[in-house]
Amino acid sequence: MAVKGPSEVDPKHMMRGINNVGAGWHPLVRELEAKLLEMDQSYVLDQIKEKFGGLRYYATNSTTKVDYAAFHALIQAAEGDSFQICEVCGKQGSLKSVFGWYKTLCEDDFDKVIRDRQKEMTEHDHGGQG
Questions:
Q1: What is the mean pLDDT of residues 68-78?
Q2: pTM value?
Q3: Lower Cβ count inside 10 Å, N or C end of the chain?
């Protein structure tokens, strides 16, 4: 059985659970956590989230024996990679503007999000009458 990373130990925790980001980024988070755990098995995950279309992973290493720069370079690399991965499905994605919100999405999920949002706006404008 694979070792669970900090985001999967208590996935219901509002700010630290892997479910705080889309399923498309879960493999990226798991890969990052495996690398971080190799460096520091007791590091603390402070927060995981999506912000401005990219992954944000806030963690603190637990000991001064860990190379701080290398530890955080792994995090920065994963955060950068997230801008190429659809947060919804995990396919190749790019940063998109969705009615003023930034999301990293593939073309299929971008189209779906736009259609769903337009439908919501139409229903709202017509008092839920569609």
A1: 96
A2: 0.84
A3: N
